[in-house]
Amino acid sequence: MKKLLLQLDSNRVPSAFDEVVAHDGGADAVMQRGGVTEGDVRDLMYGCIFTRGPKDLRNTAVFIGGNDMSVGEKLLAAAQKAVFGPFRVSMMLDSNGSNTTAVAAVVKIERAVRDVRGRKVLVTAGTGPVGLRAAGLLAKAGAHVTITSRRDEEGERARSNIQSRFGGDVAMVCMRNASEAAHVLDAVRPEILLNTGPAGVLLVPRDAWSKRQGLVVACDLNAVPPLGIEGIEVNDDAKGRDDVTTFGAIGVGGFKMKVHKACIARLFERNDALLDAESIAELAQGLQA
Amino acid sequence: MKKLLLQLDSNRVPSAFDEVVAHDGGADAVMQRGGVTEGDVRDLMYGCIFTRGPKDLRNTAVFIGGNDMSVGEKLLAAAQKAVFGPFRVSMMLDSNGSNTTAVAAVVKIERAVRDVRGRKVLVTAGTGPVGLRAAGLLAKAGAHVTITSRRDEEGERARSNIQSRFGGDVAMVCMRNASEAAHVLDAVRPEILLNTGPAGVLLVPRDAWSKRQGLVVACDLNAVPPLGIEGIEVNDDAKGRDDVTTFGAIGVGGFKMKVHKACIARLFERNDALLDAESIAELAQGLQA
Amino acid sequence: MKKLLLQLDSNRVPSAFDEVVAHDGGADAVMQRGGVTEGDVRDLMYGCIFTRGPKDLRNTAVFIGGNDMSVGEKLLAAAQKAVFGPFRVSMMLDSNGSNTTAVAAVVKIERAVRDVRGRKVLVTAGTGPVGLRAAGLLAKAGAHVTITSRRDEEGERARSNIQSRFGGDVAMVCMRNASEAAHVLDAVRPEILLNTGPAGVLLVPRDAWSKRQGLVVACDLNAVPPLGIEGIEVNDDAKGRDDVTTFGAIGVGGFKMKVHKACIARLFERNDALLDAESIAELAQGLQA
Questions:
Q1: What dotted CATH number matches A4-97+255-288?
Q2: To probe the interface with B, which of C2, C11, C19, C95 has the most B CB atoms within 10 Å?
Q3: CB contact (8 A) between residue A30 and residue C35
Q4: To the nearest whole percent, how much of chain C has pLDDT over 70?
Q5: Per-residue model confidence as pLDDT tens digits over A184-214
Q6: Which among B9, B46, B7, B44 has a CA at the least distance from the CA of B25?
Q7: Which residues of C touch B52 (CB under 8 A)?
Q8: What DSSP assignment string belongs to chain C?
Q9: Which of chain A's residues have a Cβ under 8 Å away from the Cβ of B30?
Q10: What does pLDDT average to over chain A?
Q11: pTM for the full model?
């Protein structure tokens, strides 16, 4: 019996990234759907749960993606609502790579500092899918997290979402651009610096972070030059730079791929797995980074 | 050479149900297309018939689905118009599971009563895809069929469509809701009662059918509580209840899946199979229900 | 590792033709996307190049199709812009079968006349995807090419596009319909006549071409009656008719399929192949026509 992955994507044109990884993670065929809205989900889920016997349903699974995290969360909720009793299939949420990328970065950081509890963390541009998940996982693990946003309102909304979803200690400061970075780092005095800002945007100049008292780890998830944290290189993977352990987007990316593929494989081991931030983080703990 | 199934779906987001069954029925790959209109069909069919030699064309087939039966019929007509001479592929119409579900129910009923010729049949809410096909097949087999509809005009249109498509004896009575069921059953005095109404809508209260003189079989295709015929359970499969043989949606559903998969397999045995209500019914006769 | 072909189609409903040939050409799975615009391409390409290690990237490739050649060219340009360094995958452009069909016809013609250099060629209705590519390849090979168009402006635009893309000697004459064919052939005095006009439209009556002084080859790519060059039959494959060597759409079509499939196979031999008109022509030279 073939392992079938239903890829529900909120984007009009479904992600090629997610479809490739679905294949490489062990799906025999991918049933991709684009432009999926909440209203489409119930019938698509019925198509999953009513076509194979309960004992065979671990060979069908659902992956939810797309650029918009909040839409992804709604699709996941609708999918969970459609299943019942033995009629259920495993599901995974990873809008824009949010969970797998965030988990990979957080695990790398945790292994570098041993324990994030009580540590001050600054997540620059922490309002996107990856930033939201990374900040949440770090806060939940006991770190004191501060996210930055270009706009107060958007930042406060993100901060509040993270706190209600993950709990823990989360603050927000406004940082409009790279010229304000030194000032923000002076105020927050982070031990861990994580950039989740957009591709090709420099947010933290080298002067703002290198040789800064107390900074232990700096991780930049922007892969497209100019990078987000000046001086870090994309291939950095626990590289020592000015007494700071640094990670670049590709240094983290290899582990992200490993986590993502392991998640796909996990979906087909049972018919009731639910892979979201916390469960993906747990799964990643068992993998070699 | 791979067995390729082109899934033409009139819905914007193509059915997951049909794609899963396509895989399980033997297709090596499914080429699914959503939002398909009549105007799209010719070139899609040319893509099927002009890409492999006539002797290999039995490895390509077309499945037509979507919620709307009348659109499905138009897509099938357009597909038939595009093929010619040795340049043809097998095709199947099953909008919303209409044919396979109707056939499964009708075969179950026929096996319970031996012969439907001359029998009075009442199909409640018989204006949907499944009701239209089931009523037609029963009328064609010689039963005296009455369908109900909430609205006179819609009911008459459905009745007329069934008669012109399948022939036989088809009547229609208006039945607005469950409170009118006893009255309708008094008038029609059915030996066979089949509910094809919407999910979660009770149409025939227990008092209206149980221990009713002459009623032999009652079959309810609604799988979502409240069920359509009160007192029948979804798993009923030739269950005896108050001297009536009853069938529920899951009791019929297992056979429907078997029919559907056998149809997919049949499509790839030759390059000119046409699977619509009658031919699917014929195929189902050879299967163990 | 599966060979994955990302099929980017500018049409709303992606081509079935291209997907079937992708499978038959060696792709293990086809990731088809419809309604693709320039703006969608970058992220789709990132999904290709960032999901597998550089050494494995020859197992991922991109096919660009759709009815509109100029959109196809833009999608290809956008795809090329997205790849860099070792992060690249092979790509092929074949909007509406333009390149593979044109190449197949041109190779057939070249083998019939040995050398097209200095030969006068008339391409009727040469403004569509196939005509543009065939005229360009013939001009580049040294033929004196004249295309016809129903409208002066459109014809001049096409002529200018061909010349700037392929170089060589390209002229245009207006030919509104079949009644003007004899006059146009009198003026151009072609040694090679190629019709790339629409399906079911006769453009060159028999009197206009048969036994015409100097005409050596006539090739008609219209497969739907009435054919474009009266007197040629679809299965003609170097058939002698009135001292002219003739080719019909199916006579060319078999070789077109061979070229198309060989292109798909080539895509997966390395991760930096670029298959457009010239490189497809080169590849076809090595195949038996």
A1: 3.40.50.10280
A2: C19
A3: no
A4: 100
A5: 999 999 999 999 999 899 999 999 999 899 9
A6: B7
A7: 20, 24
A8: ---EEEEEESSSS--HHHHHHHHHTT-SEEEEE-S--HHHHHHHHHHHHTSS-GGGGGGEEEEEE-S-HHHHHHHHHHHHHH-BTTB--EEEE-GGGHHHHHHHHHHHHHHHHS--TT-EEEEETTTSHHHHHHHHHHHHTT-EEEEEESSHHHHHHHHHHHHHHH-SEEEEEE--SGGGHHHHHHHH--SEEEE---TT---B-HHHHTT-TT--EEEE---SSSPSBTT--TT-EEEEETTEEEE-HHHHHHHHHHHHHHHHHHHTT-S--EESHHHHHHHHHTS--
A9: 29, 31
A10: 96
A11: 0.94
pLDDT value of position B230: 97
Name every residue whose Cβ is closer than 8 Å to that of residue C211 and which is 6 or more positions away in sequence.
C242, C243
**CA separation for the pair C203, C192 (Å, rounded):** 15
Q: Which residues of B touch A44 (CB under 8 A)?
A: 13, 15-16
- Choose from A4, A15, A19 for mutation: most chain C CBs within 10 A: A19
The CATH topology of domain C98-252 is Rossmann fold (3.40.50)
Looking at chain C, the domain(s) classified CATH 3.40.50.10280 span: 4-97+255-288
Domain with CATH 3.40.50.720 in chain C: 98-252
Inter-chain CB proximity B12 and A33 less than 8 Å: no
Mean pLDDT of A106-111: 97
Complex confidence, ipTM: 0.92
